[in-house]
């Protein structure tokens, strides 16, 4: 067996470069791209780097406890795996490898509706503890209902309703490459239905199958067909956060879909504090988009997030080393967060708050 040097990688970027070398161009571009000019894609990371962390000193940080809990799920540290479609393009084991890595690191994943491993197969692999299920609402409500009820019956713990995809954002590389699901792979939740193939590309698929007429009323419909907690994913406006809470959602994921939908939307970390303020403790707020460092996780928590999710870094880990690659990605972020908390002077998640973020206006009157 050839030597896999990814165990020596020291950061997430190295995984990205290695994945780019290894994956077919069409697959890498699909995973990596943002929409249009990719302004938001850059901003998701850049805004994190503009936020400054203010360390406190002479605090006993010989023990740092990163454990937390989100909607009843225990996490060894406040990071979860975001739903990403079609993981078998990255590695033949796909979604089950991702689940195993998450499980071994004490965290949890959300399975995409558009997965290359079925709801049932993942749950079987996960001994009935598969995590959360991400829902796209199909125009055909019988199909949608079927997905939700299968997920509920077989042990998923929440429905993550994605609300930012009435149509697919335009990712230009996918047009150039004629992106499609490679031969031999299927969207396994739809087994033999025509729905299982993405022959004509993803944009056409979404335009034909996904319900672009979805409104808040449909959230009430979703609540009527399942007892599972409902998490809305893709909220960016504080106004929408307010509406979501009014509709009784169990959590909100602040997300711009990894900058793959509306380009020039703000970064997620920029809007997070305003959403946290609007929600005012009425439900947990999770953030995803551009998290690549332990310090990013610390900043998101300092701005009021309960946890963060990562999308692409997991795909890079999967591409480079399957389950072990994903484990290495997760443990890098785990160790970075632990060190960053210690250096900032916090020893538990509950001690993280906005005083960690440098804001000179707080000190001008001192
Ligand atoms: C290749 C890819 C596929 C994705 N597929 C889905 C999906 O099926 N459902 C969904 O709700 N979000 C999907 N997302 C969005 C992610 O859940 C998440 O919001 C985003 O990747 C977070 O940003 P990050 O990649 O910078 O960590 C996808 C993102 C990527 C990059
Ligand atoms: C219906 C969307 C397909 C997967 C996805 O979410 C993405 O490519 O960003």
UniProtKB/TrEMBL annotation:
Q: Which residues bind glyoxylate?
A: 30, 136, 171, 257, 260
Query: Which CDD domains does this one have?
Result: alpha_hydroxyacid_oxid_FMN
Which InterPro entries does the entry link to?
Answer: Aldolase_TIM, Alpha-hydoxy_acid_DH_FMN, FMN-dep_DH, FMN_HAD, FMN_hydac_DH_AS
Q: Where are the transmembrane segments?
A: none
What GO molecular function annotation could you give as one example from this UniProt entry? FMN binding
- Keyword Flavoprotein, does the record have it? yes
The cofactors named for this UniProt entry are:
FMN
Residues of the active site are 257
Origin, by domain of life?
A: Eukaryota
Domain FMN hydroxy acid dehydrogenase residue range list: 4-362
Pfam families xref list:
FMN_dh
**Protein keywords:** Flavoprotein, FMN, Oxidoreductase
Q: Which residues bind FMN?
A: 83-85, 112, 134, 162, 233, 255, 288-292, 311-312
Q: Which GO terms describe its cellular component?
A: cytoplasm
Family named by the database record: Belongs to the FMN-dependent alpha-hydroxy acid dehydrogenase family.
Kindly give the PANTHER family that the UniProt entry links to this protein.
2-HYDROXYACID OXIDASE 1 (PTHR10578:SF107), S -2-HYDROXY-ACID OXIDASE-RELATED (PTHR10578)
**Mind telling me what this protein is named?**
Hydroxyacid oxidase
The species this protein belongs to is Heterostelium pallidum (strain ATCC 26659 / Pp 5 / PN500) (Cellular slime mold)
